[in-house]
Write a structure and sequence with these properties.
The protein is of the alpha/beta class and about 600 residues long. The chain is built from 15 helices and 25 strands. Keywords: Signal.
Length: about 600
């Protein structure tokens, strides 16, 4: 429709316009308004899930959980911990008796504590009684002369309940240790980048301190022995390992064992490759050493601790299982999400990155089921990035999305144990920093331990995804996992269910509980970043309250936010949380 009406530029007011022209304009607007309203009404569609922040998501997601039978049951120690042998080098091993550090580790028990890493195969045991005289290293004169004696005096304080050595180290000692560790960190990085490692001496006293930490924290120690000590015919030289076994047996230390770390890399770091069948023979030899020792005749033996399952690694695992598949109690491998390429915080939110682990699980399971069907599989080392992680990223709130999704994915796919690399000190992937302060992934792990039981339940959802466009892959940015609530948590009766939900969308999501979950009381544990740094924050808040250790060095109470029965769950954008659905009386969860 065209309106033929011209206005001279000199006519500035409507009163000066011709009446006939004004009538035409009025008629045109009257006809156009209904057409405009009907056009907009006919195009009211739900907003796409990935639009800008602040847009409200209209889609309601219906959620139900199968409560009759669990789809998987994982170990009670499913979430376990790791310590790297580099703590011998930088001196932090001497501070494992810290009351604060032990308290933090106790919060994550029961769990395994694996002592192993790249320096495992350069570790030698020596039964020295006075390691202070043999230790060298950089640092202030006072520190080098006196800190060993100060540690001995501070270790005198005993936990009367368990007979553990628990210390309250003076602040000056910790400050001096941090100075030494900072200098040693440069040495360790140089070794890592050059792929050449110096030998480490583990003394009897150091082993005592390591075991004291594990035992007092309620953790079961898994010790990885040096597999690179080789005889001329390339068989394993077990002399140092036998000395360690005899000493630990004399102390009645309850330890499980491994041999080596990432044997697929031996050629690059040692110049001598060890194939799968030879490694299998070495494990059989280790089992023969353990059997005559009464306390270790039935000790756990795990391996081969291979790296990411590329073609050569799969070949090594294949040869190993042919020879020693029945010798090990679980098959172990390690996973690194990214080889140091993560440079910005949003990389941790990419669904393609979160999904890379699933394909590797299937590769490992295929080989294991070929030779030892039903054998348990462990993911023994899980890190976000190589080279110890990325500062201000791997230790931030954003890294938690990767960690929580890893826990959910592994349990759903039947992996029995996942060992987090590392509990303390090593790189930036740790749970606790050098000030003994818990980082975001620690609080996430603590909530997981308190609320999640070993039984995995099937989740059923409706309205989760849009219809995919031709040629385009739509990946979930809303991830929902369900378990029976931890039966050790006395705040909830057996039969309760815990959901944990990751929302990577930049818009909030509404979830309506249906079926067996309908009209049930829900306790919310929403974990969000705390402070001005947002996703890069190293502090978190639970239901709006910052999480910090209590002044007396104890862990805070994790208080839920009760939600009204039948209320729709509203999941804020780019957050993660746990939701305990009470009194479901789920059959799968009523019995252990």
């Amino acid at each position: 429709m065209r309106v033929l009406c011209a206005f001279p530029e000199a006519m500035s007011s409507s009163s000066s316009r011709p009446p006939s022209c004004l009538a035409l304009v009025a008629l045109f607007l009257a006809l156009l308004l209904p057409l405009s309203l009907s056009f907009h009404a006919g195009n009211r569609r739900p907003l796409p899930v990935d639009r800008a922040t602040g847009l409200k998501e209209k889609t309601l997601i219906l959620l139900d959980v199968s409560t009759k039978n669990p789809v998987r049951t994982v170990s009670e120690n499913f979430l376990s911990l790791h310590l790297d042998p580099s703590i011998i080098h930088d001196g932090w091993l001497d501070f494992l008796s810290s009351k604060r550090l032990v308290t933090l580790a106790r919060g994550l028990s029961p769990a395994f504590l694996r002592f192993g890493g790249k320096r495992t195969d350069f570790l030698q045991f020596q039964n020295l009684r006075n390691p202070a005289k043999s230790r060298g290293g950089p640092g202030p004169d006072y520190y080098l002369k006196n800190y060993e004696d100060d540690i001995v005096r501070s270790d005198v304080a005993l936990d009367k309940q368990k007979g553990c050595k628990i210390a309250q180290h003076p602040d000056i000692m910790l400050e001096l240790q941090r100075e030494k560790a900072a200098q040693m960190h440069l040495v360790l990085l140089k070794e890592q980048y050059s792929n050449t490692y110096s030998n480490l001496i583990l003394t009897a006293r150091s082993l005592d301190k390591l075991y004291n930490f594990a035992d007092c924290s309620g953790l079961h120690l898994i010790f990885a022995l040096n597999a690179l000590r080789r005889n001329p015919n390339n068989s394993w030289n077990s002399s140092s390992a036998l000395s360690l076994l005899k000493y630990s047996a004399s102390k009645k230390y309850n330890i499980s064992w491994e041999l080596g770390n990432e044997p697929n890399n031996y050629r690059s770091i040692h110049g001598r490759a060890v194939n799968g069948s030879q490694l299998g023979k070495d494990y059989i030899q280790l089992r023969s050493l353990l059997q005559p020792i009464r306390i270790y005749s039935r000790a756990g033996l795990y391996g081969p601790s291979i790296g990411r399952p590329r073609k050569n690694v799969i070949a090594l695992l294949d040869g190993f299982l042919k020879v020693a598949g029945s010798t090990v109690d679980a098959v172990t491998w390690q996973h690194c999400y990214i080889d140091g390429r993560v440079v910005k915080v949003m990389d941790f939110l990419k669904t393609r990155l979160l999904d890379t682990l699933s394909d590797q699980i299937r590769k490992i399971q295929k080989v294991v089921n070929t030779y030892t069907p039903g054998k348990k599989i462990w993911l023994e080392g899980i890190v976000t990035t190589s080279a110890g992680g990325t500062n201000n990223l791997s230790d931030s709130y954003a890294a938690g999305f990767l960690w929580l999704n890893t826990l959910g994915m592994l349990a759903n796919q039947g992996i029995d144990v996942v060992i987090r690399h590392s509990f303390f000190d090593h790189g930036y992937n740790h749970l606790v920093d050098q000030n003994f302060n818990p980082l975001p992934d620690y609080w996430l792990s603590l909530l997981y331990k308190r609320l999640i039981g070993p039984k995995v339940l099937a989740v059923h959802v409706a309205g989760l995804q849009r219809k995919p466009r031709p040629g385009r892959v739509i990946r979930d940015k809303l991830r929902i996992y369900a378990h029976c609530t931890n039966h050790h948590n006395h705040n909830y009766v057996r039969g309760s269910i815990t959901l944990f939900i990751i929302n990577l969308h930049r818009s909030r999501k509404k979830i309506k509980l249906a079926g067996t979950l309908r009209d049930k009381l829900v306790h919310q544990y929403l974990l969000q970043p705390y402070g001005q740094e947002g996703l890069k924050s190293k502090s978190v808040q639970l239901n709006g309250q910052p999480l910090v250790m209590v002044d007396d060095g104890t862990l805070p109470e994790l208080k839920p936010r009760p939600l009204r029965a039948g209320r729709t769950l509203v999941i804020p954008p780019v957050t993660m949380g746990f939701y305990v659905v009470k009194n479901v009386n789920a059959l799968a969860c009523r019995y252990r």
